[in-house]
Amino acid sequence: xxxxxxxxxxxxxxxxxxxxxxxxxxxxxxxxxxxxxxxxxxxxxxxxxxxxxxxxxxxxxxxxxxxxxxxxxxxxxxxxxxxxxxxxxxxxxxxxxxxxxxxxxxxxxxxxxxxxxxxxxxxxxxxxxxxxxxxxxxxxxxxxxxxxxxxxxxxxxxxxxxxxxxxxxxxxxxxxxxxxxxxxxxxxxxxxxxxxxxxxxxxxxxxxxxxxxxxxxxxxxxxxxxxxxxxxxxxxxxxxxxxxxxxxxxxxxxxxxxxxxxxxxxxxxxxxxxxxxxxxxxxxxxxxxxxxxxxxxxxxxxxxxxxxxxxxxxxxxxxxxxxxxxxxxxxxxxxxxxxxxxxxxxxxxxxxxxxxxxxxxxxxxxxxxxxxxxxxxxxxxxxxxxxxxxxxxxxxxxxxxxxxxxxxxxxxxxxxxxxxxxxxxxxxxxxxxxxxxxxxxxxxxxxxxxxxxxxxxxxxxxxxxxxxxxxxxxxxxxxxxxxxxxxxxxxxxxxxxxxxxxxxxxxxxxxxxxxxxxxxxxxxxxxxxxxxxxxxxxxxxxxxxxxxxxxxxxxx
Length: 556
What we know:
The chain is α+β, with helices and mostly antiparallel strands.
């Protein structure tokens, strides 16, 4: 039987309905155009990326007697409490068991969380064909099958498969298994992106009006783009939409005075550069008119650069290699005591170390193909000798199998390692950096992520800063989770979110920020999850490293 495609064919209407409009967003994703723009103009990734899903199915069950089923697909995301939130619906395709739907469904791909997708296929009854698909009551339609997957899972992948497609077996409401054949569902994913081009320009003004009485103006430029609402939003880069370029006279009190402005698109700015000509600034008058000024804007440099996204790299074969280092200093308390941060609850309730390993590991493991993770401890007596970097696994092998392997090695180490001290980060950072350094010459597709979980104050703060400055040149990011009630102000120094890069004892400055720190107590008492708070900078750090070295995706 041939495939069926939505749309008009030989004058006969094959598809009906379809939900059109702006991309559907999961409310949990918290989409906000202003926030999205804030991140992008700084060269950073926002907390999500738009993914457009195209769906097709094969060998669906036929529940109609005279004709064939009229299938429609519905996509849900499974939330943390187990409930399903609908993300979108396709159109209905008439009389078809092998549909290819035209209507796309948009999903907010979030690196920071595990997104469980659930697909339901329905046979829409003929009497509902004139209704809006969005208003259709699904409990009144015949259920054809269900499929599930994790959006970012490496073995069940959409966005990181090189063909961006994934075929899933459909099953009944009771889950996989059974003798019935429900057919298959194929999901194809594409990252929604208007353009991958970024433009670097060098602008110059001449003959500007002087706005100061006793000295010359202190001019600066502000570039804004026109939004759909008709308002201008300050930016640093944009698509080829009209730009508002304003020149101000700077005043220290913040009351900057407008010198002049002009409207130009990127292509018009490029033409100014090619023609080596200037454009006159204008000054808006109260009557809505513009006064042409003698001051001009020149474009001395115009360079177009292709900027690849995080998903471009991941889908071409780049990986995140996960590593863990656990604090075994005595300040954690004796593991057998219930007030210890290392206490293993027989009821199965996780301690803070276990929570951090699970929450971070479950996200990053999907980007590591072999799922063999280096796992170390520090600050404990291992084999009777104090060590600040020892294998959690009670063997010579420093790697363990999967997140559960880390959990098992951690629990076992609590019986074989004596808690001691002091708290030193330097040795584990240097060990992780050595692995990352080896990869720079052997495999450029590997980027390393070290998770350090600690309860205490560092006693080697300068040595740690020296190690971080050296590691800033490597494909490495370091995530630090603080557990317990210690004062973690030192950690905030390491996490250079204030814009000041770390400096070593020799005066060397870090080439980039590679640290993200979060105290577990603050996260669990708030609304945002620990994973989201900890991982939100990771895609940006990954991109900063690869872009600075002109490393491109393998298929580019």
